[in-house]
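BUG-329 | component: ligand-complex export | severity: low

The export step for iron/sulfur cluster jobs runs without errors, but we want the raw record kept on the ticket for reference. Input record follows.
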Amino acid sequence: MLADSYGRVATDLRVSLTDRCNLRCTYCMPPEGLEWLPREEVLTAGEIVRLLRIGVTLLGIREVRFTGGEPLLRPDLAEIVARTAELDPRPEISITTNGIGLARRAAALREAGLDRINVSLDTLRPEVFRTLARRDRLPDVLSGLSAAESAGLAPVKVNTVLMRDINDFEAPDLLRYCLERGYELRFIEQMPLDAQHGWSREGMVTADEIFGLLSPWFTLTPDSERARGAAPAETFLVDGGPARVGVIASVTRPFCGACDRVRLTADGQVRNCLFAREESDLRSSLRGGASDEEIARRWQAAVASKLPGHGINDPSFLQPDRPMSAIGG
Ligand code: SAM
Ligand code: SF4
């Protein structure tokens, strides 16, 4: 098991497949991008699958989510998914993507064994997309979304980060768009994980504000069937249901006490929290000839030292050195 000293057990592994990205979302990266990891430091498909095998057979990992950076930038993504689907016990396999290129690849990913998908969509307006993501790719994202649905990846989940005075006014339109297509929308509070350190508490659109933006248009009632548990999203029935909307209030309503996640960066470092300030180097163990058991012990030690919470609301909070795109959101 991957247990920590506060009694939490990590069963959900987030794997960053690359730190590179083809967008430059303002809440994530500077316009010029970042200094990418050298290719030789990024884990190969074989190395990733070996770590996943250790995770599911020795450490109780039950869910694997591939993320990044942009995971669709890995040409071997379908191969990684297929090899993950062959593991025994087979974990549930999902990806979080910006959707660019998904239109071409959704069917192959489904075929390879992908179970679920989250597509990030912050706006329905091309000009806002250009401001927010600094690229002109909204049509690619929208066609990727519908391809995911056609490929049988329903219910497609949509992630939205609202930015004050940029796309916050679109909250009702985004929800309407998702309701019409059967997508499950989740709003995510902006977290201090951008490479430029531009986050501010005042700038963040809070969960309470999101309710305020939606409530003139929709009746939201807490979804008693879906208790929050380890799931970060609080879900609400829209207009009596069955449609739902989620809000991930990582900052204003932290859920660290129920966290069941652990993260692996593209260069093979275990992080026990998005906001961890320390990492454990599994890549050196892998490449240095360590046995599966040795790697498992190192991984367990990394999780054992997990802190009780992310501490964003403490005056002494320090943002981690790696930004979200390099950790794997
Ligand atoms: N590139 C993919 C994408 O955008 O979906 C996967 C990686 S991205 C880092 C994963 C998720 O993190 C996206 O839904 C994105 O909107 C979200 N995200 C990025 N930076 C964030 C921040 N500072 N606060 C909250 N969410 C953030
Ligand atoms: Fe790329 Fe995702 Fe970050 Fe946007 S949020 S810059 S799509 S990694």
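Assignee comment: Attached the raw record above. Residues 21, 27-28, 67-68, 70, 96-98, 120, 159, 161, 188, 190-191, 193-194, 324-325, 329 surround S-adenosylmethionine (ligand 1) (CB under 6 Å).
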